[in-house]
Amino acid sequence: MSLVNIKQESDTSLGQVIPIVPESTIKEESYLQMVVRRYKKHKLAVIGLFVMIVLGLMAIFAPLIAPYDPYAVNETFSAPPTPLHWLGTDQVGRDILSRLIYAARVSLMVGVGAVAISVAIGTILGLLSGYYGGKIDMVIMRLTDVFMSFPHLMLILVVVSVVGPSLTNVILVMGLLFWTGVARLVRGSVLQVKQLDYVKASIVLGLSTPRILFQHILPNVIAPILVNGTFGIAAAIIIEASLSFLGLGVQPPTASWGNMLTDAQSLTVLSSQPWVWVPPGLLIMLTVLSVNFIGDGLRDALDPKSIK
Amino acid sequence: MRLHASLLIDYALGGAHLFSYIIRRLLITIPIIFGVTIINFLIINMAPGNPVEMMIDPNLSQEDIEARKDALGLNAPLYIQYFNWLMNLLKGDLGFSMSTFEPVTQIISERLGPTILLMGTALFIGLLIAIPLGIISATKQYSKLDYLVTGGAFMGISIPNFFLGLGLIYIVSLQLNLLPTGGMVTLGGDNGLTDRILHLILPSVVLGIGIAGKKIRYVRSSVLETLGQDYLRTARAKGLREFIVINKHGLRNALIPIITVIGLEIPLLLGGAVIIEQIFQWPGIGQLTISSIMSRDYPTLMGLNLLAAVIVVSANLLTDIVYSLVDPRIKYE
């Protein structure tokens, strides 16, 4: 049913051990253990998680791993891969492998940052909307409708072009614009949970509203938020890459996988220097694919309806 | 007879409900459109440096600049500016472009055709890929083919469309020399139909693959859901062949929701068009968006953003109405 219910059920059944069958055969598992067990069944999700851990470590330890300074200009420019520069150098003469490694920081920062902001806003608005209903609900939901009416990429392009392109702005703008999905999701879950007896009981007990919202209702809607947030990270990474590709995201000389592809808009670079644009493109794809697999795995693992 | 009468009444009541649902749905749309215009106006007004300063001769005196601003209404309070803009908007006047000085409505309408052509073709290609693959995937659930298709769908949603576009230009156009690298027609060519189709293929395939990636999973789950329904068991119990059961009884019901929610792909298509048109030099509203951003042509940008939102709102409205018409089980609440 819900997180808390499952927890309580397993707790109580742990408490009253009825020794009909030897204990080892009916080993009770906690909710977390069950989620982990189900997640492991999704092979691609496990691979995705592994890839993301590797990419995360690469981003954190970029200065130790990267063979060159990502901004340093070397003697050869637009050079194909050599033993000295494994992936060649770009048009200015910077080592592409080093730039790729550093750029992982940008993508992961944008993904996590934008989603953290949008999930925080969406969760609070969704909780308020679903719990209070009435006028508050009406206003928040109409606001959601309005923001949902703009195609994501179009809206963010316009806003970024107005506030100026930079890493911080990209994260902030995405965070401030993309909370609508989470808000709707949380509202829907709250509407369901609010009818349950234990919430009514907390109201009767006279608990404060913030306590009811955050301690009693929020834990029950966390699973869908987590899944939605994971897919949100994938979307944010793609949008950042697209913006940077168009020259409206992360600005050079800072390396981003998206802006490393910008030069490939010219047919000469596209045709004669594939080492410049293929690796960053593949890395974006690999990252987004991994995050999407993780999201899919989480959805299966957290879905209370599926019994596996 | 009595039963018949009550059915008729039910039907009439259903019709009335449907009608009032559509009216209510239309009424909800009005404040949304209103909100869209406010957000749109506020965003553009956040722009640093106002339009006049950007287009004037640096030799002009401060007084001249102020006079020009007054003339353009840029010194009025924000809500007055919004009101003026809204009034003009209602008359179909979106102002003038700051780079070409042509009316914004005219510039946008000139670019609309190519984008509609591109989006329509992309949608068609997307469904052409997604529907058969989704059906195969569902009817052969958990088979190797199912995993292959589902994996492919994940690739489709995970590959950035600009990378796919560049990759296809590199392979198909530059290496194999099969299709043009961009544009709508060959410059100086005969502008014939074949030429146009050849130019249309790559950009619409790239956009279509994104759509297909999203839709395959949707088709698959919709078909799976339908295959589990009781009436299919009945059909099998009657002794119908499996082929007829699936294709005649199953798919028809599974595909209805898919066709009706096509409208929900519009935002994705519009966003994708911005990037794809830029890469393929497709002269539509996407390319216009990028060039307006580069030249800080805010009136045009405002018009484009508004148009995009209005298209999405209309598509959502249409989707809801069509869905309620097609699926009588929907509750009008």
Short description:
The complex is a heterodimer of chains A (308) and B (333). With 308 residues, chain A is an all-alpha fold. Helix content of chain A is 70%, strand content 0%.
Please explain how this structure is put together.
The complex is a heterodimer of chains A (308) and B (333). Chain A has helices spanning 3-15, 31-41, 43-60, 62-65, 96-132, 134-148, 152-163, 167-177, 180-194, 197-204, 209-245, 267-272, 274-302. Chain A is an all-alpha fold and 308 residues long. Chain A is elongated. The model of chain A is unreliable at 1-17 (pLDDT under 50). Chain B is mostly helical. Chain B has helices spanning 2-45, 51-55, 62-72, 78-90, 104-139, 144-158, 161-175, 193-227, 230-237, 242-260, 266-279, 285-294, 298-326. Chain B is flat, with a radius of gyration of 25 Å. The model of chain B has no long low-confidence stretch (mean pLDDT 83). The interface between A and B is large, with 46 and 49 residues.
Share in helix of chain A: over 70%
CA distance, first residue to last residue of chain A: 14 Å
**Helices and strands of chain B: which structural class?**
mainly alpha
Counting DSSP H or I runs of 4 or more residues, the number of helices of chain B is 13
Global outline of chain B: flat
Largest sheet of chain B: none
Rg for CA atoms of chain B:
25 Å
Record keyword descriptors for this entry:
heterodimer; A: 308 residues; 70% helix; 0% strand; B: mainly alpha
Task: Please specify the SSE layout and strand pairing.
The complex is a heterodimer of chains A (308) and B (333).
Chain A: H1 3-15, H2 31-41, H3 43-60, H4 62-65, H5 96-132, H6 134-148, H7 152-163, H8 167-177, H9 180-194, H10 197-204, H11 209-245, H12 267-272, H13 274-302
Chain B: H1 2-45, H2 51-55, H3 62-72, H4 78-90, H5 104-139, H6 144-158, H7 161-175, H8 193-227, H9 230-237, H10 242-260, H11 266-279, H12 285-294, H13 298-326
